[in-house]
Amino acid sequence: MVPQRLQFGKRYFAEEYGEKWSFTAFFRVTPLLVYVALCSNFFLLSCGQLTGTRLTTKAPKEAYSTTEMEVRNERFLSTVHIPVSIALSDIERQINAQVNGLIYEDNSLEDNHNDQFMVKVWKRGAILLSAQDSLFHLVVPLKIWAKAGVSVLGFMQYKETEFEIDLRFKTKFDLDPDWSVHTQTQPDGYGWVRKPTVNIVGMNVPVTSLVSRAIDKNLGTITKALDTQIRRNVDLKTPVLKAWNTLREPYLLSEKYRTYLQIVPKRVLITPLRFEGRLIRSTIGIEGYTLTTTGAKPDVRPAVSLPDLTVVSTVRDDFQIGLLSEATYPEVARIAADEFVGKSFSFAENRYQITITNMDLYGQNENLIVKAGLKGTINGDIYLRGRPYYDPRNQTISLKDLEYDLDTRNVLAQSANWLLKGTFARTLEKQLTIPVGSQIADMQKMLQQQLKNNQLAKGVTINGQIDEIKPDQVYLTPTALLAVVNARGRIDVRVEGL
Asked: Name one Pfam family in it (predicted).
């Protein structure tokens, strides 16, 4: 019930001032009351405009689906290209170093169906090697001692002889999956240097036909002996294992960022051998995953074996690695605050105004949440969400599809629809950029320097070229935004003696 003294009207004035004064007093006092009421209302409205409508928005929940370690350990399948060029003179030297002295002997007269023949074979000089039509051609100079049973007048007499001969062979050379050398050697004729003779009753009697038959019988055995010697002594596995372990060693890219390049090899590829003049060419590819790690140098133990060798028609020379640039959330918030805090915006022909008082940013899975504190026609916090991406032209992390969070949109639709219809979100999207190009440029420069004629170990040299930097994506982790770009190019490794 309204108190009596607040019941303004004719009766009140009659009681207070008397009947004859009531109407006069009423009209005298009423304008004053109206003026006071209008001023009060104006004051209240003015205060409302200064303090503005208070927003009660809910903050989107912070959430992350990727950790920083998972991003840094992201693996890229690559191939380290190892061109192989082997001079025939090197193979000759290797074969001659391994095949020496006595290379074959038959010490029984009764074996081979009682052939009455014994033989010892020595290498007489340097084995010569040539290549044609995917085959090796070998000339093997030999000195041979033979003892044969010769029937004279019904009596068996045993005679010894020495002679010299050049045996010719052709060999197909392959590598087995277990890295052992596999050769298939076939006889390709022979030429006499000094023919064999035996002394019978004071006379030198040629026994060329007899020895020829014996040699023909034993050529298969000799070729097997050659194959065994080559298989045992020609070693590709050791130098490739050396390259394999060298590549597995973490490779310092940047002391500043404590960043290491790491290759996790998975298999070894090789193309069929091809002959070019006095050279044998092939390509070995070590296929594996590349990744970058930060912090302490990873501990990698040397491998003691290689995976099986896979023969392929071609070995790709593509190599890629992810280069990372990091922007922590406090750093991103500082950049955003420097750009926006204190900036004012007007809407609807200056009927409404807001000023940004603070900014914060955090992640919600694939979206970056932008929190903006406002004062003016409305007061409080609003939330927007957008997808971060790496802009290669400006070398920045930028946002696309920035829009109000659903709860913020609902609140604004009831109290500040003019903000929804304005360009505020588009302005933030356009101007909120995080520069990260310097980090990526530094990493690219250091990577290219480390790939230029760098001796990783004695006899192992790496050369490479980065041809393309291609943006991958921006990952939101609990601690930072990580912009990843793929550096693509090729890497060659040369191993001396291979």
From this structure: DUF4403
Residue 73: the pLDDT is 72
Rounded (5°) CA angle 460-289-175:
55
Query: Looking at the whole model, is its pTM more than 0.70?
Result: no
Distance CA 384, CA 399 (A): 11
What's the pLDDT at 380? 95
Angle between helices 329-340 and 424-431 (to 10 degrees): 120
What pLDDT shows up at residue 91?
Answer: 78
Q: Which residues contact 40 (CB under 8 A, 6 or more apart)?
A: none
